Amino acid sequence: MDPELLAFLSKFPMLTGDLEAIAAQIPIRRFEKGEVLLRAGEICNTCYFILKGCVRQYYLMDGIEKTTAFFTEEQAVVSLTSYSSQVPVDHFVACVEDCTLMVGRLDLEKEMYDQFPVLETITRAMMTQDYGKTQDHLAAFITASPEKRYLHLLETRPELLDRVPQYQLASYLGITPESLSRIRRRVAQKN
User: Fold this and answer.
1) pLDDT tens digit sequence for 96-155
2) FRET label pair with 93: which of 32, 41, 43, 150, CA 20 to 30 Å apart?
3) Is 75 helix (H, G, I), strand (E, B) or coil?
4) Averaged pLDDT of the chain
5) Which secondary-structure segment (H or E) carries 155?
6) pTM of the prediction?
7) HSE-up of 160 (CA within 13 Å, CB side)?
8) Taking phi first (over 0 means left), then psi (-120 to 50 degrees means alpha), and beta for anything else, what does residue 143 get?
9) Residue 74 and residue 94: Cα distance in Å, rounded?
C-alpha cells in the first residue's frame, strides 16, 4: 500500500475503520516530469489528486503557453466541466515535476461512493473548499497589479518559486519573464 496515500487518508478520522479497504481500491500512479495528463481537444475522463509533485494547467494561444494554474500536494486536478459533461477541453494539464497521483475515473466514482458513503461527504467538502479558494484567487488576481500578484504568490505559495520554471511563473502571473525578474529585484531591494 502506498505510504503517501495512507498518510493522506489518515487525516480523516471518519475513515479509520475503512482506511485500508479504501486505500486498496484507489489507484496510484507515478508520472514523470513533463508528462501530459490531458491535451486540448480531449475529453477529461480522469481526475487526479496529488500526493506528491506539481501539475500545471495551461492554454496554447498562438503557439505561446499561458499558465492558468498550478496544483501541488493535497490538491485535486480535474477539468470539471469536461469531466461531468463529457465535452472536450481547450487546455492542457502536465506534470511540472515527477508526480505521485491518485487516479479517479467517473465510471468508478459512484461505486466507491456507494461502498463508502463517507467518501462522498469528504469529496463534497473538499470541492466546496477548493471552489471558494478559486473564487478568492481569481478576484485577487483580477484586481491586483503584477507586483501585488507576485507578492501574493510569495505570501500564499512561496514553494512554487523553487519548484516551477520562471517562465511558467511569469505566464501564471500574466507577465513576461523579464518583468518578473524586474519585480523580483525591486521586491528584494525593498526587503
Assistant:
1) 999 999 999 878 888 999 999 988 888 888 888 888 888 888 888 899 999 999 999 999
2) 150
3) coil
4) 92
5) helix 146-156
6) 0.91
7) 21
8) alpha
9) 17
